[in-house]
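Fold Annotation — chain and its backbone
Next Lines — sequence and tokenised fold

***
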Amino acid sequence: MSKTTKDNEMRSEYDFSSGIRGKHHQAYRNGTNVVLLEPDIAEIFKDSDSVNHALRMLMDLAGNEIKRNLTRRPSGHS
């Protein structure tokens, strides 16, 4: 079944005029790590920078203990 010209047209509600082609290409190529936050956590940590900052503070507080625990745990387990 072939599509008509109307089916292939861009809808008016889509606006990619200020988009940058390939903006995130290199990041995806290097690999990504998507983490879903619970709603109450997401209220406090609104972006990646705030999450990373908090986790680095936790790592500093925990010192080598957190590194030892992470290396013992098989990947894919929470």
